[in-house]
Write the structure tokens for this entry.
Amino acid sequence: MRAPGLALSLLIAAGCVLAASGVPGLLLRWRSLWGPRIAASATVLGSLLGLAGCALVLGGSGAAAVSLPSAVPGGRLVLADDALSGFFALPVFVVGSLGSLYGLAYWPPAEHPRNGRRLRFCYGLLLGSITFVTLARDGVGFLVAWEAMALSGYFLVTTDARSREARRAGWLYLLFSHAGTLCLVGFFALLASSGGGFALHALAPGQIGRGAATVAFLLAFVGFGIKAGAMPLHSWLPAAHAAAPSHVSAVMSGVMLKAGIYGIVRAASVLPAPPVSWGAFVLTVGGCSALLAIAFALGQRDLKRLLAYSSIENVGIILLGLGLALVGRSAGRPDWVMLGLAGCLLHVWNHALFKSLLFFGAGSVAHATGTRDLELTGGLARRMPATAGLFLLGSVAICGLPPLNGFVSELFVYLGLVRTAIAPGPAWAALPAPVLAATGALAVACFVKVFGGAFLGTARSAAAGEAHESPPLMLAPMAVLAVACAVLGAAPGLAAPALERAVAVWAGHPLPGPSLAGLAPLGRISTGAAALLAATALLTLAVLPACRRGRRRAPELPTWGCGYAGGSPRLQYTASSFAQLVTARFAWALRPRERPPRLDGLFPAPARFESHVGDSVLDRVLLPRARRLRKTAARLRIYQQGDLQQYVLYIVAAIALLLLFNLPLNWLVGTLCGP
Amino acid sequence: MPPIPVALPLLMAVVVFYTPSKRWRPRLLAATAAVHFGVTVAILGGVTVEPAGAWLRLDAPGRLLLGVISLLILACAVYSVGYLRYRVERANRRFCACMLAALATMSLVAYAQHLGLLWVGIEATTLATAPLIYFNRTARSIEATWKYLIISSVGIALALLGSFFVAYAALLGGGEASLLFSGLLSGAGALSKPWLRAGFTLLLVGYGTKLGLVPMHTWKPDAYGEAPGVVGSLLAGGLTSCAYLALLRLTQITAAAGEGVYANRLLIAIGLVSMGVSGALMLGQRDLKRMLAYSSVEHMGILAVAGGLGAGATFAALLHLVNNAFGKGVMFLSVGNIHRAFGGKTTDEVHGALRRLPLSGTLFLLGLFAVTGSPPFGLFVSELLIVKATFASGRWAVAGLFLAFLLLAFAGMGATSLSALQGRPPLSARRSTYRDSFTTFAPALCLLGLVLLFGLHLPETVRALITDAATALEVGR
Amino acid sequence: MWSVIAHAAVLALLPPLLGGVVTKTKALFAGRRGPSVWQPYFDLVKLLRKGVALSATTTWVFVLAPVLAVVTAVMAGLLVPLGSFAPPVAFAGDFVLFAYLFALGRFFTAAAALDTGSPFEGMGAAREVGFAWLTEPALFFAFLALARLSGSLSLDGMLRATEGAWLQRTAPLVLTAAGVLIVLLTECSRMPVDDPTTHLELTMIHEVMVLDHSGPLLGLVEYGAAVKLFVLEALLLHVMAPTARVTGWPGLALFLLGLLAVAIGIGAVESTMARLRLLHVPTLLIAAVLSCGFAFLLLSR
Amino acid sequence: MISLLSSLVAALLLVNLVALGTSRISTVVRAVASQGVLLGLLAVAAQGRLNGTVVALALASIVLKGWLIPVILFRALRQVAIKREVEPALGLLPSLLLGAFATVLAVAAGNRLPLAETRLAPLLIPASLATVACGFILITARRKAISQVLGYLVLENGIFIFGLLLVDAMPFLVEVGVLLDLFVGIFVLSIIIHHINREFSSLDTRRLSLLKE
């Protein structure tokens, strides 16, 4: 059978083409239009190859593997494909190619002379390295691809190297990313020290001790969770996404974060016999991420920071699915595993689709108005209707509302959680369900705020007033993504076979018990979506004539201001005040910095009220710790003030310490370092 | 009759010293280094047979060390040609002669099979490199040289005392008190334990001074900071490797005498302390060269830990030795160029190096990722193997601290380097005359290429070289 | 077959009546005669005949919102059983669809409010979405409790399981019913959360969101609200008073009577209670969440 | 024989204390020089017989330490034109006491250590340790750069004493190498001292603290 080899070679070729897509542009002059064109066409070509490969893999052609000698003695660089890899590789190709097309119009060489070529080179490198992350099956190769991804991401975040904000965001990203890589080094080293080589294959139950397995799992969860942006580890994410160009943010949020998810999923499948505590841990982290992140999102003014926080929320939902699957695996319940992991995986796809759609939309807004501040936009729906419509669809999808794709994956997770509730025995595993519900409601609030603040009402600034619709080259990718969201939402049955294969790979064997279609009402979802659309269409057609007539009769009718005639755009309910009712409830977590106005006397002078929601973990926990560490480190310097006699005394002291006290020291170090 | 790799550079050092032409001396230096490298390749390739003297013999570890030094110094020599062209105002007679002398003495260390001879060689490297640090003839460089000489001499003196202790331990053991490694190894069982322990401790402190282990590291930032970049790479890549090999040999003997646990604990403890302190001192460090010096201290700590992990980690340790030598070479050579271009080496003067020097700046950036152990560079592989060995030997706390200190070092180096690389270069820097030329750029590029290659795929010859050395050093452990 | 038709007919025709009954009850409590219980039907007919006045700032979102309000409410209505009759549509997880359909309607209603660019409507929208994030978890805790009770994954099964469970599982069901009642009052913007009859825009929630809707659009909004009330009442009735014991058409009749009773009860609540301060509403909702959650914990022992 | 040995050792230790106790640098140089000569004699006495190596070693030591190095140091002294160590880091008397204490400690320790034979070791090992300690005290207690060179010399002498125990083990070549290294080291150091004096117009190491964290 040739098919498996074919799929793998297609995927490898795709990775190489993507990684090299930016290289020709480096050789051309920055002004030439051919650099971007070549890069984009190469990206599209590579993506088509990759899509073909994914189609084969997800279509069920058996897995294949190739290997080269690696730098580690006895180790080999192994590349292999299975349904799980294919599943996570697919978004790379979809979002990547669309993003490069979008970038043609969004980042033209004429406007960005200095960094365009570097941007395109790193963009291609990012896509290629993520492809290889999904294919690598040994520690060294995986980490190489991983770091290539991380570093190209760093250079993409600092594309605008002149802005201090971008540099700061980039450094934060780099530091977090390196911490994650070190955790992964520990993870793979631990696996290798107990499992033999660095090969990344499922370990036998007896192969690794319980304690070692737990440490390995935690290392992997932290290392990958930093990249995925799970809640306490997320601090790098908002700044980075805000600083990067929008199509890059789309890829980072839609695809790069998913590499972290892939890592956690893969690690969970490699480690044998997970205790139930792992699942509980993942469920807890997922629930906290989802709920708190969406609350943070509500507090944001910057459109892209808001979308970044909503990415953290979606990662939380994905983790809920994974945690459920882990619980199911340790409880021996195939239906939980199926529903949980299917929800997790499908939400990975869905989030890739609608989040990149939303980031493209945010890019268009920034492109048209020159600002990302929701307090300065408004009324864009009439100036850029196509963008508004697509953005609205994305918002509905990301809120998990029917009939779009977000609903399907969340439904899977809900079903799994409720199944734990109806199973005999303690039902603690079902507790995330209400949390997920609250998250969904908050997501509605959040995206009503976003859509309303950006596109509805009247323009709050002159720039928003003169906004222009984006060129077709920016609209077309958004349209494609929107269609994909609709299709996945209306016909989830299409994804079912791929999901089942991926789940089988994760579990190590095809799951017993009913199939996904047997567990979740896929058909009913389709019919429901059809009914919803049909009814809406009919009713709309029914009222449309009356509305037409009304418009014709009074084209310039103002909004009814409840008797107050002198309406001004500044009178509108702003995005922040829209969210205030909720953010006030979450003040304990958001810690908004507020400067209340001073109002005194009968006729107080004009006053201003300021409120800003930063990242609590970064501002309240990490930065103070970092400052204290620096202060403590600086205290060491006083011991090195250039006095030679003192230096010689250090040597004497060292001898004295090591020689005279060598027995107690020996004992001390012995207790510290082991035999 | 001393072997060619020792004799040739020594001879040429004298020749160069008496060469009148200022333009020819660097060329002679480069030529000699090239010939030395050729000879080394021939020896490693087994083309020429070595005289198997008792005291001067090239065993497997020596072969590895000789190869590393020869290649590194070749790069430094080629670089010096371009570098000295920019420093015409300086007399380069001593510089060139001492470079060759250093090459000779380091080769001697690679050949030495006798504890005393080893000591002589290492002390000689100290003396040969001191004038190099003094190249700039400024007050600061004098001070650096002075501290380097005094501290290293004191440390080295202690190493001599330690060697005597070991010899006395052998004497006490009843065997004839030979200081040949082979003899010590074979008669290790009979060595008197207390004297051996004391001797090992003194040798650890003594050679640790050359390595720059905390708290004997104090000379390092001063010397590396004031010496020209090329000298820094010579010290951080070559000298430390010699001292580390000496330390490994003694650890092997101590372990063979049944004191392995003691030696390992000492090495791990002092290694971790070095990593932690150097990482802390790198935080907020504003001087690029001093930062590199502390990074060197950190890597010496890594090597010490690896040496203390016992058998199994020796391969990783030697691989790390090789990678560190070349990686530090890249860093110091490129920072030398940056120093030339900006007329300064602190983050107050250096901004936007990537824009002022696209080539050297990029090299420095990649070198930064290389020495901080990021994939796909060689140091990543060796550190991965070291962590694996740490876990395998059940030292979980050590592994945790190890990784934490690596992160600390990255935080320090990254903040400093990036603030120097990014941003807008100051006006003075844009006016300065320095431009990247082939001779000042190519050597660093080649070294970086090697580090990258060793990370992706270790060539069979190199692997054999390291494996043989490792097996030879693990006899009796 | 007949059951489906009956279900559809009841769902389509009955809802306005409940609103009328509530108004009538309040009038009687106030000692007035009040409008006839059929008044809502007359209003709907009148509104549908009127023309539409559209503000110049509004877009198509403004038109879409009332439509979706009706569609989502009706579709949700197709998922709840009426009396002994099984709902036309029932499948595993339909309760999620039930909740999310209302969320969809809420999304567009709030968006339409922002679409007008009026300060008051934005305020109302903010309150609507700002309270919903507490009603949703309450509702889902209720669903969890019912699912735990019934072992079923569809609304139909869940709501029928209360049958007979009242005897041994009284406490959880009382708690659940209380929670669902609060959810109903909030979702349908009734006292003590919201006063549908007030004329002070600053204090309204739902009514202020639709200030700008007129004619058929307003009619759709009103009808959608009525259907929503009907559906949630049906849910509540199932939880607190299982009527499925009486099977067949009598059961349906009995159930409808029960609905009227609930409507009267709501009227009574509205006329006896004062509206809470907006700041205290979340406390009430948290109480709902806690009671449903506690019910679930009691059951999951 | 033993009496000769012990008297030599006693002289050595006395010289240590002299070096510690005086502030006049030229005196210290003379002390170190005499120590070199004593070492040469000690080498012969320790062996108790006259074979080629021992004589050569003794001669080398006497010539180098007793003559060449002092000459170099005196030249350096003349160049930098300083006479005495004013205000040392640790006063003369304290450092003297410290040296004496170190000597006593070394002797005490010497009796505890396991020793190969009872003829030389009980004398030489304490002497060597004491001298090393005095060297360290000299380096760390004095402020003038040249005093540190002298301290380093004393340190070396101490180690040399220990080396006398292992003349058979230590091949002559190595011994000569050690001495050569020492000589070159002192040579380079004296040059640096000259430069320090030129740059800093003083030999006070307190001035040498431009380089610090």
